[in-house]
Specification:
CATH topology: TIM Barrel
CATH class: Alpha Beta
Helix content: 25-40%
Strand order of the largest sheet: 1-2-3-4-5-8-9-10
Mean pLDDT: 96
Number of domains: 1
Oligomer: single chain
Distance between the termini: 32 Å
Strand content: 15-25%
Shape: globular
Structural class: alpha/beta
Low-confidence stretches: none
Order of helices and strands: EHHEHHEHEEEEHEHEHEHH
Length: 293
């Protein structure tokens, strides 16, 4: 494990086939077991996302939150873009069962400031979506590390200085990452550079940075060319390049064995070199990690 790295357990999410089956069967006991397993493996928070059922069967979402809090004592992160759904989650959440810790709202953006109204229900922490910005009332995707950094600064300053009772410690910047094996647009490099820029900004001292770490290894084979497990090392390579610069939270798999890699590690070398390439050359360099020459 990496010291000070916090894990938001990602498995209570319909994106996982086994979890989708639990939802389809409304298997609350199975969801409780999944929650306990993640905490037992080291999750510091649990993500709660029941997908469309949050709107179709809100009573099921309420039952899930209560059932999870009956078996674990870590705080929860509610992953819904809908303010009404978030309000129901916060009203259901029992702070005492989480040791007094505030829940996390995932997420708020420059086009979703209405999420701040949730503070009227209870104190909560927020994930900031820094992959987009408000430009003259339009949603614009951020394309550079500078865009992500400046969006983060604007959002954080408004939230901390706006009389909402929030501090930098209440904020988690979501620095988006995608599959590195298909990264034609340099999004992995942008994520790394964004983390470096945010971490070096004195005005953002104390803010947390987070990524959905499992996304980075999607579509890659299981083994590197030396026979070692590839996907955990890809994830650890990203952490090796970013944790020293302030990344401290991941939405990921508890028990994954995240580690800081040595400079001569095959996967880390490949990831570093791919970040210096553009387009297809970056993808080809990643392929060299798992394909024989």
């Amino acid at each position: 494990m990496i010291d000070k790295l916090k894990i938001i357990g990602e498995r209570i999410n319909p994106g996982f086939k086994s979890t989708r089956t639990l939802f389809d069967n409304e298997d609350v006991a199975g969801i409780q077991a999944l929650a306990w397993q993640q905490v037992d493996k080291g999750a510091d928070y649990l993500n709660i996302n029941v997908g469309d059922l949050a709107v179709q069967k809100p009573e099921f979402m309420v039952a899930v939150i209560r059932a999870v809090q009956d078996v674990v004592s870590v705080p929860l992160s509610f992953d819904f873009p809908n303010v009404e759904v978030q309000a129901m989650c916060l009203r259901t959440y029992d702070r005492d069962k989480a040791g007094g810790a505030s829940p996390i709202v995932n997420s708020i953006s420059e086009l979703r400031w209405e999420m701040l109204e949730l503070l009227k229900i209870c104190h909560c922490r927020f994930v900031l979506m820094a992959s987009e910005r408000n430009q003259d009332g339009r949603r614009v995707a951020n394309k550079t590390a500078s865009d992500v950094h400046q969006t983060t600064r604007r959002m954080a300053q408004l939230m901390v200085d706006g009389g909402h009772g929030l501090t930098m410690d209440d904020l988690f910047v979501d620095v988006s990452v995608g599959p590195i094996g298909a990264d034609m647009e340099g999004l992995t490099r942008m994520a790394v550079d964004s983390i470096h820029a945010i971490g070096a900004d004195p005005s953002l001292q104390g803010i947390h940075m987070s990524v959905g770490l499992s996304n980075i290894g999607i579509m890659l084979p299981k083994k590197a060319r030396d026979g070692s497990a590839l996907q955990p090392q890809i994830e650890s390579a990203f952490l090796t390049l970013t944790v020293p610069h302030g990344l401290d939270t991941v939405l990921g798999t508890a028990g994954r064995g995240y580690a800081m890699l040595t400079d001569d590690n095959l996967v880390l070398c490949g990831v570093r070199e791919s970040l210096d390439c553009d387009g297809i050359d970056a993808i080809l360099r990643i392929q060299q990690i798992y394909q024989d020459a």
